[in-house]
Specification:
Layout lengths: L1 H53 L7 H12 L3 E6 L2 E2 L6 H7 L10 E7 L2 E9 L4 E7 L7 H45 L13 H51 L6 H29 L9 E4 H19 L2 E6 L4 E4 L1 H18 L5 E8 L4 E7 L17 H6 L11 H11 L3 E6 L5 E7 L1
Parallel strand pairs: 7-9
Antiparallel strand pairs: 1-2, 1-5, 3-4, 4-5, 6-8, 9-10, 10-12, 11-12
Helix pairs in contact: 1-4, 4-5, 5-6, 6-10, 7-8, 8-10
Length: about 450
């Protein structure tokens, strides 16, 4: 990344300097030709005025010969024009012919530029009392001579490119430094470090990346902390029934429990084994739910009919526990769902409600809906939840850790997490809220 940023800065700088140099060369060349043409025009006007005063030609006197010598020293060729043609044109004859200097003999001045043999010539011709004359020079021999200008521009461009390279390298390194710090922090996070944080600074985009890495580190730390608490909770839940199973099994093996007590010991072992089986089953389901190949078989489901079927089981279980069961099967539209998994959701929520509902309190299974949504609810008249419990009610083991020892809790605290995962997989939503009966209300909604 640092190399790419540096290369990009260098490329932009070099291109900018190159374009500026090309534009400058073009402007200077045009300006040099314009200035040279103006100077040559002024010189031609001076010579024409002197000839008008003397009334002669360029070869007529010593003064004019000195003018011709001075102009020659400045790189200006003076060509005498007569009716018989240019007297001393030499190699410039094609240039003069192309410039049309013969018009001067008719009293018309000529000011033009001619390209001949790849060289640009500046031509200024004026009429004289006797014939006329032409001043000719190349654009490279003017007051802003191209050789010096090109050398100076070349030096300036090279200096500009050198400065651009240095600035590009420095800027690239400065811009890449926060990214390198962020990359180093990401590698440390991958290696298991969770105390790594990246200083937030620099451009807005780089600061956003650094902030995102810091948030990721915080999220990983929280997630792993919850995992540790969850594993400790599950370990505790496994240890309790295993201790009971092992103790009663050893008592049976040692002959400590005999006679009529054997049946009670067997029932304890069976009950604790079922508890272990439920916990292991929930953990297996939760693990499968998080896999990509978890399968659902959605079909049109009537929520009211499903609630009626579940009511036959839960009415009997509530009667055994002394809890009052209520079915409120309002009309609903058919929804696409896996009926086996949806029944698993209803049974899981009802079991949680029955566990905390005191004798005489209600346990309600209700259905209803409108044109936009159909829902099924499980409500109870138990102790309910604290307001700050609702945002984390479906996180694994959170409520289990908070209420263990204060009220009956499930095995390992994975039940609500499993319910949430199943509902989400079926394209529905689940929400926890206070129930009118005083306890908790869980609503599963299908759009």
């Amino acid at each position: 990344m640092a190399v790419r940023v540096t290369a990009a800065c260098l490329l932009v700088a070099v291109v900018a300097v190159g374009v500026a140099g090309l534009v400058a060369v073009r402007l200077v060349a045009v300006t040099a030709r314009t200035v040279t043409q103006d100077v040559l025009s002024q010189q031609a006007d001076v010579v024409a005025a002197q000839l008008a005063e003397t009334g002669g030609g360029l070869r007529g006197g010593g003064g004019m010969r000195r003018v011709v010598d001075v102009l020659a020293g400045q790189g200006v060729t003076v060509v005498v024009l007569t009716t018989r043609g240019a007297r001393n044109a030499g190699l410039l004859a094609p240039v003069l012919e192309q410039a049309g200097v013969q018009r001067v003999l008719g009293g018309q001045p000529v000011s033009t530029q001619v390209v001949s043999g790849g060289v640009r010539y500046l031509v200024e011709a004026r009429p004289a009392p006797v014939g006329g004359f032409a001043l000719v020079r190349t654009s490279d021999t003017g007051p802003l001579g191209g050789g010096v200008v090109r050398r100076n521009l070349t030096v300036a461009l090279l200096a500009g490119i050198a400065v651009a390279v240095v600035v590009g390298v420095v800027v690239g390194q400065l811009m890449a430094r926060p990214l390198r710090r962020t990359a180093t922090a990401a590698r440390l996070l991958r290696s298991g470090r969770r105390d790594v944080r990246v200083p937030v600074g620099g451009p807005a985009e780089v600061s956003a990346v650094a902030g995102a890495v810091n948030e990721l580190a915080d999220a990983l730390a929280r997630s792993e902390e919850r995992q540790r608490h969850f594993l400790l909770s599950v370990s505790h839940e496994l240890r309790t029934p295993l201790t009971a199973v092992r103790g009663f099994a050893e008592s049976l093996a040692d002959g400590v429990v005999t006679g009529p007590d054997t049946a009670d010991a067997g029932r304890v072992i069976v009950r604790e084994a079922e508890r272990l089986d439920r916990l292991v089953g929930d953990l297996m389901e939760l693990a499968r739910l998080e896999a990509d190949d978890f399968r659902l078989d959605p079909v049109p489901v009537d929520l009211a009919a499903l609630a009626t079927d579940a009511a036959a089981v839960w009415a009997a279980r509530c009667a055994d526990a002394g809890v009052r069961f209520v079915l409120q099967a309002g009309p609903t539209r058919q929804v696409p769902a896996d009926p086996r998994r949806l029944r698993q959701v209803v049974d899981g929520l009802a079991e949680n409600a029955l566990r905390v509902a005191p004798a005489g309190a209600p346990l309600v299974i209700a259905t209803g809906g409108d044109a936009a949504v159909s829902w099924i609810q499980i409500r109870d008249g138990g102790p309910g939840l604290d307001p700050h419990d609702y945002p984390v009610v479906f996180e694994r083991g959170v409520l289990h850790d908070r209420y263990r020892g204060r009220r009956p809790v499930g095995s390992g605290g994975v039940g609500l997490a499993l319910v949430h995962g199943l509902v989400t997989r079926m394209g529905a939503t689940i929400r926890a809220s206070p129930a009118p009966e005083g306890g908790a209300c869980f609503t599963v909604s299908f759009p």
